[in-house]
Amino acid sequence: MDTAADLSRLLGPLRRAVLRSTRAAEGLPDLPDAQIELLRVLSADGPLGTRAVAESLRVSPSTVSNLVRTMATAGLVERHSSTTDLRAVDLSVTPHALELLERYDRASRETLEHAMDRLLPGDRDMLAAAMPALTRLANALGG
């Protein structure tokens, strides 16, 4: 058994299945993962500059700028002049985006709970036991 290969093949489809089920359950918009992650960073640590968001997400500042352009148009992110650097902008999440994140989180949890309820008790126990190791794995990957 090649655990790394198996996990690698499983993570993408698992994440997409959770998002698809979550969106369907709540009638949520089809926000890409990258936008959801950007909103999470800003809701936890914002307002932040583009460079700080890029470092947190481990992407280039131009990637963040492209995301923000789309998200600002959709009313998810606001740009404000930086108080420390007049050439820069600070980004913050809008109340509408916070409400969407709360709905995503609630629906995602409920979706996973319903799916896990259909598993055997031993499978649920194994998932719970794996959580600390998965958390350490995410941290080892810089997550």
Helix content class? over 70%
Unreliable runs, pLDDT <50, ≥5 residues?
Answer: none
Mean pLDDT over the residues: 90
Radius of gyration of CA atoms, rounded to a whole number:
18 Å
Count of DSSP helices?
A: 6
What strand line-up does the widest sheet have? Answer: 1-3-2
Give a short account of the largest sheet. Answer: 3 strands, antiparallel
State the shape: globular
Helix-and-strand structural type: mainly alpha
- Cα distance spanning the termini: 25 Å
Strand content: 5-15%
Sketch the topology as an H/E string, one letter per element.
HHEHHEEHH
Number of strands: 3
Structural write-up:
- The structure is a single chain.
- The chain has 143 residues and is mainly α.
- Helices cover 71% and strands 8% of the residues.
- A hairpin with a 7-residue loop joins strand 2 and strand 3 (89-93).
- Helix 1 packs across helix 5 (95-117) and helix 3 (50-57) crosses helix 4.
- The protein is globular.
